Amino acid sequence: VAFVVCRSLEGLKTFSYLEELILDNNLLGNDLLLPRLPHLHTLTLNKNQISFQRNTCKILLDHLAEVVPSLQYLSLLGNMACPNELVCKEKDEDDYQRYRYFVLHKLSNLKFLDTRKVTRREREEALVRGAFMKVVKPK
Fold first, then answer.
1. Alpha-carbon gap, residue 34 to 13, rounded angstroms
2. What residues does 29 pair with on adjacent strands?
3. What is the CATH class of 2-132?
4. Domain extents for the chain?
5. CA-based angle 42:43:46, to the nearest 5?
6. pTM, 2 dp
7. What strands lie across the sheet with 73-75, from one edge to the other?
8. Cβ pair 75, 114 in contact under 8 A
9. Who contacts 120 (Cβ-Cβ below 8 Å, separation ≥6)?
10. Cα separation of 28 and 25, whole Å?
């Protein structure tokens, strides 16, 4: 007996008018590829395997910016990419805020990130310094 774990989301391309997508608690990683979903405004990827290793999260965020241009609500809680004090005791609020600036730099149309509304100040900071705010773990 063989078990196959299918992590393909290719079937989503038939739902081009999809507006909300919840992909929580899967084994999705930075190699996640979504089809173009121009109407998608809400995406939750909580508790997956998304991290900031080797620029791959940058690639994922660039991919999301391209294929889901209407995205306004994104949640990445429970992933290593999201430095949350509840998940990792070594992380603090400053780490989380740097993560927010980086994500907002890449996805500037977001209104909510994780559980928090995006503020005007965060948006301004993301424009100025967001590209330099990637949270990385030293080897």
1. 8
2. 49
3. alpha beta
4. 2-132
5. 135
6. 0.84
7. 20-22, 42-44, 73-75, 112-113, 116-117
8. yes
9. none
10. 8
